[in-house]
Amino acid sequence: MYKVKYLFYGTIFISLIFILFTAGCSDGDQLVDNEKSEVKDADGNVYHTVVIGTQTWMVENLKTTKYNDGTPIPLVTDNSAWGALSTPGYCWYKNDKSSYENPYGALYNWYAVETGKLCPKGWHVATDADWTALADYLGGNNIAGGKLKESGTSHWKTPNNGATNETGFTAIPTPGRQAGGQFSDDTNSYSYWWIAPKKDGTDPWYLSIYHNSTSISKSSYIHWKVGFSVRCIKD
User: Fold this and answer.
1) What is the C-alpha R_g of the chain?
2) Are residues 123 and 198 in the same domain?
3) How far is it, in rounded angstroms, from Cα 161 to Cα 126?
4) At 198, is the secondary structure helix, strand, or coil?
5) Which of 26, 109, 184, 220 is the most exposed place for a label (fewest CB within 10 A)?
């Protein structure tokens, strides 16, 4: 009799716990959990995300071929045509999507970044303030690069100084496209990402990380036509 009584009350207790748990997990809570794990762009590409401090970053470089309103971004393969651009354009490294879409992502000129529509809605191209906050959280510019870089030499050139990827950011080297349309031949020494918007109303800025350094650095670039990578951060 006592066993039946305890079993009865135990069943009720478990049922109440289940009801309270499911009541506390609203659709909004589930959405937050999903957003912490992945996000999709206008093409349907899936990106993993990582929370670093108070920021949520994409783990992969952007590779969308459409703006977040569904409008196609012009694909420009010809070197001369790329060099003549004064409007948005993107490309794949060496014009070889099958080989370089993963893991490098696409290369975008500044005009494409300037539209403000590259990243999925609710996300944006990382700003100077975003990168500064990230570096400060990681202990400063001099050591932040090592904590962001993918460890080992699967992608990075030796020596991949100080690379721990303890943040999960998984920075890999990213080849670029020059203002005249030529592609860089160096695929494993550095990462370049656009910084948006223009800093202090001057020329566009970009952030760089190198294989032989633990630091990150920011520089301005007079050529808006170069093709660099893009990392998105949540609004």
Assistant:
1) 22
2) yes
3) 24
4) coil
5) 26
Q: HSE-up of 153 (CA within 13 Å, CB side)? A: 7
Residues 10 and 60 in one domain: no
Task: Find the Cα–Cα–Cα–Cα dihedral 175, 90, 61, 163, rounded to 10°.
Answer: 20
Q: Which two tokens stand for residue 121?
A: 């809605």
Same domain? For 89 and 198 the reply is yes
Provide the number of structural domains found in the chain: 2
pTM of the predicted model as reported, rounded to 2 decimal places: 0.83
Structural domain including 21 reads 1-38
Judge if 184 and 197 occupy the same domain. yes
**CB neighbours of 150 closer than 8 A, spacing ≥ 6?**
156, 163, 165, 170, 171, 172
Give the whole-angstrom CA distance, residue 32 versus residue 4.
42
Q: Which among 127, 103, 105 is positioned nearest to 234, based on CA atoms?
A: 127
Give the pLDDT confidence score for residue 203 in this predicted structure: 85
Higher pLDDT pick, 37 / 179:
179
| CB-count burial class (<10 Å; 0-12, 13-18, 19+) for 61 | buried
